[in-house]
Amino acid sequence: MTTITVLGAGNIGSAVAGIAAKSGETVQVIDRDAAKAQTAAGNGTGSVWGAAIEGDIVVLALPYPAYADAIAAYGPQLAGKVVVDPSNPIDFSTFDSVVPAEYGSAAAELAAKLKDAKIVKAFNTNFAATLASGEIDGTPTTVAVASDDEDAKKAVAGFVQAAGLRTVDAGPLKRAANLEGMGALQIFLGITEQTPWPAGFKIVK
């Protein structure tokens, strides 16, 4: 059994923790609010920010600007871990990427700063509601997964599929830039009320 640690108990963090629990894995949620962490963790472990990471898979369910603090607090503990990036790093006034140009994506930036971790891009093209419910428009929610590490990609896909959701292999980590573009577009459609928040992009198989 794998332990999955989720940093952040917001909508995405809570939804991913729920997926992990449904898959049968052990769940730890870390948040600055201990009560929120425990609520998101359900029968798992809720921990306050600064607590040791227990998971082999770590999901950074935080806003992109908070990544710097997460790396400062937990960088050494993330060595050797599968680190999942669900962020959509965008400027909400323009819906353009705010990642420094030399990186191209938030996932690539993480890979550069966490050289000993195995970075996976996942969950950023899904609204939290469709992750929590496990379905969209009557079909299982599909999570796109990208990574340069095939074993890390399979580990993330494995617990997502075990919870009843689908996955698609989006290829190597360089595809994270494409996924972040999709995420930004989907958020724009939601904010402009062209797409409802319990909906979003649907992949038909």
UniProtKB/TrEMBL annotation:
Lineage, opening ranks: Bacteria, Bacillati, Actinomycetota, Actinomycetes, Bifidobacteriales
UniProt keyword annotation of Oxidoreductase present: yes
Keyword Metal-binding listed: no
Name used for this protein in its record: Diguanylate cyclase
Domain of life assignment: Bacteria
Cited Pfam families: F420_oxidored
Keywords: Oxidoreductase
Domain Pyrroline-5-carboxylate reductase catalytic N-terminal residues, every copy: 3-89
GO MF: oxidoreductase activity
Xref: PANTHER family: DUDULIN-RELATED, REDUCTASE
